[in-house]
Amino acid sequence: MKNNPNITAEQIANEIKDITADGVRYHIRHLKTRGIIMREGSTKSGKWVVLK
């Protein structure tokens, strides 16, 4: 996410191979609630920001 802030859950799942897109979304949700990442902008044209 630091290298590609526009990456999608599907793209992350394709790169990792051992996890589904739903699994990636699950982990993203937990990272957001812990204040580690946040989404800046809209769903389609926004980007990920790594806070910690």
Automatic annotation (TrEMBL):
InterPro entries assigned: RNase_R_HTH_12 (IPR013668), WH-like_DNA-bd_sf (IPR036388), WH_DNA-bd_sf (IPR036390)
Residue ranges annotated for the Ribonuclease R winged-helix domain, each copy included: 6-43
Record-given protein name: Ribonuclease R winged-helix domain-containing protein
Organism this protein belongs to: bioreactor metagenome
Taxonomic lineage of the native organism: unclassified sequences, metagenomes, ecological metagenomes
